[in-house]
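ok trying this again, last paste got cut off
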Amino acid sequence: MTSENTQASEHTGAPGRTGRPAERGTVGHETEVERARAELVSALTELEDKVNVPKRVRRMREEEPGKFLATVSAVGTAAAGLVALGVLALVRRGR
């Protein structure tokens, strides 16, 4: 590496090109990174809670048993209705 290249890389601040080790971030940057990391963990946990259906059902069953039973009954009734419509359609098709 020529002296011109060394001087150019020192001005651009490219890490590792000057032969010096990369500088560590300041305390303020580390705190900012830690805060961003904590926000990311929180967002991922919240997202996981929203998309994890078995976990949501388990929590609903434990925290709100009445609402859980009403939901299960409604889903069961809807499923039975769909089966009945399917059977009715098959019977009418056979006439």
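PB: full thing came through this time. Residues 65-93 form the longest helix (29 residues).
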